[in-house]
Amino acid sequence: MGCQYFAPTPDGADSFTVAMPRLTVGRGTLSEVGARTAALSVRRVALFTDPYLLDGPLVAIARKSLEDAGIEVVVFSDIRVEPDDESVSRGAAFLRDARCEAMVSVGGGSVIDAAKAALVLHRHGGNPIDYFAAPVGGGQAITGPLLPHVACPTTSGTGSECTSISVLRITSLNTKFVIAHPCLLPTIAIVDPQVCDSLPANAVASTGFDLCCHALECYTARAYTQHAKVASPNARQYIQGANPFSDIAAVEALKIVGEYLERGVNDATDTQARDQLMWGATLAGIAFGNSGTHLPHAMSYGVTHLMSDITTEGYPVKTPFVPHGISVIVNAPSIMAYTAQATPERHLEGARYLLADDKGATIDDAGEVLANRMVQLMKATDMPNGLSGIGFDESHIQALASSSMRQGRAIANAPRDSNQVDLENMYRNALSYW
Ligand SMILES: [Fe+2]
User: What is the pLDDT of residues 107-143, one digit of tens each?
Assistant: First the structure.
């Protein structure tokens, strides 16, 4: 299957690029951050975190480790969950005033993404929107290198420590967009599963479905050979499509979700499951950082744009708020049923890695088998029942589709083409699953 999926096409790409940070994985490794950072020959760092972690044990461990290594630390924590352009601009101003030689981020994807974007503004000035692709943003060029960045994730989902992408909310547009450039890739990633021991079940679930969709979208993405050849090697986007490298990481991450997601969510003492989910999140980050996601992520942007009057228990954020992983998974079963028609083998294989019950299934059942397994996992982990579970109904469908149609590059990375009407139909089929 693998070789055949990457069969050459007349005008398609015939090469792909792989990038990842120097990666350390293991319990207790957060305390290595000082030694790792000192090896970069820096004496003064900015430690970016959020207000909820600021006075907690994880920031204390990182700070002590840095100070024990003889590094001066200045802390910035004014970053909101699902970071906005204002958080980033404040962070960039802090970096300029603090005259730091490196960045250390300790937090979830929100903190790491804000740190990446602040490093861009620190070097090039301006506002985050200047760096989004046109027509939403100014398409301003980013050149490297930025300051070295040591990323220490505290959740098992986004994989941001291994990607060259920063996802930000633009307050004036009330929606999220992506800044992507190879120089946003952290220099070092330190993945310590111990930091997730105290995560509440709903956070493990929402980040776990983010990881699930990263892996599934990578594995089912359009093959890199079906993307156009680039004129310059440096012009290749991280959204380059499925490739043999992203396959390796995505398959392993899917197997981890299949075996450990329910266990890790429903039993906080199941260290084995939670450690595996942390490893799976990193693998899925490596995968999508080298292939790109597609429709489930593209269509989550419409959800976060148009959500209203909804809060999520356990997240100290003002309404409206839906965690990223939930905004992705609510549509994913419906989307996979749609995209399976283009590449049913890949969808059926994905379902099998997730441990779907495929007894008697044929290739024609691929979409249904995969969607059913995802819905089964959602039910077992107390996820909302599709879009209706987070406050949407038929009257929102057209606006959801119009909003998400702006994510052109991700939509084009799906294995099957789609237009406004197709997106509307996928949203409609995602209203409820049970
Ligand atoms: Fe994601």
Answer: 999 999 999 999 999 999 999 999 988 777 888 888 8
* pLDDT for 75: 98
- Cα of 71 to ligand 1 centre, how many Å? 33
The class level of CATH for 28-191 reads alpha beta
Residue 198: band (very low, low, confident or very high) from pLDDT cuts 50, 70, 90: confident
Q: What is the pLDDT of residues 303-353, one digit of tens each?
A: 988 887 666 666 666 667 788 999 999 999 999 999 999 999 999 999 999
57: buried, middle or exposed (CB in 10 Å: 19+, 13-18, 0-12)? exposed
- The reply to whether 2-13+199-429 and 28-191 are identical in fold is no
Name residues with Cβ closer than 5 Å to ligand 1, which is an ion.
Answer: 210
Collapse the DSSP code of 193 into the 3-class scheme (helix H, G, I; strand E, B; otherwise coil) and give the result.
helix
User: Which pTM does this prediction carry?
Assistant: 0.94
Q: Tell me the CA–centroid distance for residue 320 and ligand 1, in Å.
A: 19
User: Where in the chain are the domains?
Assistant: 2-13+199-429, 28-191
Q: What's the 157 CA to ligand 1 centre distance in angstroms? A: 7
pLDDT value of residue 135: 76
**Could you give the CA distance from residue 164 to residue 142 in angstroms, rounded to a whole number?**
12
Q: Tell me, what's the pLDDT at 1?
A: 46
Give residue 227 CA to ligand 1 midpoint distance, Å. 22
Q: What is the mean pLDDT of residues 68-84?
A: 94
d(CA 84, CA 105): 16
CA of 293 to the centre of ligand 1 (A): 8
Q: What is d(CA 408, CA 236) in angstroms, rounded to the nearest whole number? A: 16
Expressed in angstroms and rounded, the spacing between residue 330 Cα and the centre of ligand 1 is 13
| Tokens matching residue 281 | 């999140």
**Assigned token pair, 92:** 């960039």
- CATH number given to 2-13+199-429: 1.20.1090.10
